Amino acid sequence: MKWGMFARRIKQEEQSEFWVVASRLAKATPSRFYELVERTLQEMKFADRVWELCRPAYAEEAKGGRPGIDPVVYLKMLMVGFFEDLCSERAIAARCADSLSVRGFLGYDLCEATPDHSSLSVIRQRLGVEIYQRIFELILEALHSHGLLRGKHLGIDSSVLEANASLRSLTHRNTQEDYWAYVRRLASEAGVDGSDQEAVRRFDKKRPGRKTSNQEWVNPHEPEARIGKTKDGATDLIYKPEHVVDLETGAIVAAEVRAGDAADTAQCAERLVEAGVTLGQVMPEVAAERLVQSVTADKGYFALAQIGELQGLGIRTVVSDPQAAQRRRDKLSKEERAVLNRAQRAVGSESGKELLRRRGQHLERSFEHILDEGGMRQATLRGRENLNKRHKLAAACYNLSQLLRRVHGIGTARQWLATNKSQLEILCACLKYLRRVVAALQRKIAEPILPNKLLGLIFSHQDHQLSRA
């Protein structure tokens, strides 16, 4: 026994080969899901069009240093981050370096070094927001070519994105004091011992006019973030991502990260008009009067002036009035009463109720996939411009998943794993049944040919394959 242990230790300490022939290494090939993604991107000529868009951001000749990263590789890495719920660029870079299937998707061999997270930051800053918008429109064009974009009925809504900053680092805009230094100074002026921490906290809870407003406080490390309520009701520094969605297909038509304290109604009509312009560029063969026939939103988007502006453009508005019971109609002008009547009729109609149901379905689904399942709920980047770039690409990946689901029947890597899991369950059930049959034959006991549970698994799998076909 001792000699065996010693022999095993000697074997581990033996010098391995210094040189390894490249042909002996396992070739990095993408998994089945990433093969489907790559095939879809090739069919839409994604690489050629991205290179043409990003050409102005690269110099014709290298002037020293490392060569720039292929923008197609950069976009594919962010796709991996979306499909595998990776929130930070460090996590994306680590996943791309560790996974053979992801290496094959990116086009890297086993011996090649994948891009570092710092290189992702460099290329993100190099490409302007307009390039990200054009890439977003490339995916929209692919959706339109497969009949997944109509553009007649749009829905709009916003959610919450937690900023990469802490409330503990807030400073007063006028005095540059942090929060507790500010409170201790007020406590000392009121006759409270500033060195007594408990007394200062009691004073802070009871002092008149106590509030943390964006007009007085700012985070010096993330000045664009705003104080607000997160999804779970806590107070934190936030941004507000906003989506405009095609209510007939679920495709995201426009995606933007707004300030955390921005009102939903502020310039709402302008943003919807910009979404209509995007649709016109993606669908040039469709007449303008056939695009954006209705807009649906929740009551937070109701502002009489904005509703009237949209109706003036010939767009039907399906937005509930939160002040319908308290609104004084006698104080409104004739035009305002007409706007209000048209909005109320649209909300009460059967078609309006159907659009409201679709709004809840498609808009909430887009936020769930991008924020909670796509790694975007908690920001790891700082600055609204950086977040806007990353969020536009996440929205493009969401649209790409819609296209994958239409063409291949599988839209996400998790769905692919679930399909493989169901096949494995069927195989395990078959093996378990075979063992029971062998045992029954040995005992010479007759049993049914197939148990009901196995029949149910097989039939459900066949139905899934038929639906994919």
Summarize the model shown.
The chain has 469 residues and is of the alpha+beta class. It contains 17 helices and 9 strands.
Chart the SSEs and their pairings.
Blueprint lengths: L1 H12 L18 H12 L2 H9 L16 H13 L5 H10 L1 H7 L10 H10 L2 H17 L7 E6 L2 E2 L8 E2 L6 H11 L7 H10 L10 E2 L7 E4 L5 E12 L5 E8 L8 H15 L11 E4 L6 H9 L3 E4 L14 H15 L1 H23 L11 H25 L4 H31 L8 H17 L1
Parallel strand pairs: 1-8, 8-9
Antiparallel strand pairs: 1-6, 2-6, 3-4, 5-6, 6-7
Helix pairs in contact: 3-8, 4-5, 4-15, 5-6, 5-7, 8-15, 12-13, 16-17
Describe, in plain words, how this protein is organized in 3D.
The protein is an alpha+beta fold and 469 residues long. It folds into 4 domains: 28-127, no CATH class; 145-164 and 227-408; 171-211, no CATH class; 413-468. The chain has helices at residues 2-13, 32-43, 46-54, 71-83, 89-98, 100-106, 117-126, 129-145, 179-189, 197-206, 268-282, 304-312, 334-348, 350-372, 384-408, 413-443, 452-468, and strands at 153-158, 161-162, 171-172, 217-218, 226-229, 235-246, 252-259, 294-297, 316-319. Strand 8, helix 12 (304-312) and strand 9 (316-319) form a beta-alpha-beta unit. Helix 3 runs antiparallel to helix 8, helix 4 (71-83) crosses helix 5 and helix 16 runs antiparallel to helix 17 (452-468). The longest helix is centred in the last third of the chain and has 31 residues, at 413-443. The relative contact order is 0.11. The model is unreliable at 1-12 (pLDDT under 50).
